[in-house]
MerR family transcriptional regulator (Companilactobacillus mindensis DSM 14500), 252 residues
Amino acid sequence: MKYTIKKLAELAGISTRTLRYYDQIDLLKPNEINKSNYRIYDEKNVNKLQQIMFYRSLDFPLSKIKRLMDDPDFSQLEALKEQRRLLLNKQKEVNKLLTNIDLTIENYKGEKKMADTEKFAAFKKEQLAQNEATYGSELQQKYDADTIKQANQKYSQLTEKEFKEMSDIESKLITDLVALKKHPDLDSSLAQQIYQEHRQWLEFTWPKYTKSSHRGLVDMYLMDSRFQQYYDKKAQTPVAQLLHDVVYRYTK
């Protein structure tokens, strides 16, 4: 069966604007443009859109979806199996959050005492699952499985105090990067402080810190727009390149 852009949008529950954008970025091209200049989509387009929407439900950025689906070795069946696995993991994390909420309600009612560590366990597990879905393939290419496992374990075992310290250091790091961007000087005490803050932030999860690993990480920040956006969005100004340069300055 064939669909116009309007009919396909209605079928999928998305906007025609979204489909036009997918066409613009070469993520989902229509099968044909008819004589009336209408985009026409066929069954293959429908199947591809379904897989795109599965990836989007897992919070995959469009750039990664395109990269995966443009791979000559891409298999629709294998992709569906992987999406099913990731969705099941996501379902488990939602169930953990619901359990955590139920325990918290009982704690507020005075029906059950909840340990402080229990209050944050579900959030840390959710973050690990989200990191795996978003950055898993890139991290697996750069780090061995044992290193990733140790980092995840270290993160999941953070105490409430350590978790707060990690968040506070990251907030301070972003603030300092914004300040340095206004008056960039890699030899300044502020730049040196930024290096130390980023190192401390990493050491909350890294099994072992090395300067070469630190450089490798900030190189990845520049090679993958999602990592850049993580910092740039928090700072509300481009700072990923600056962080990269600071790290290189103090890891000679």
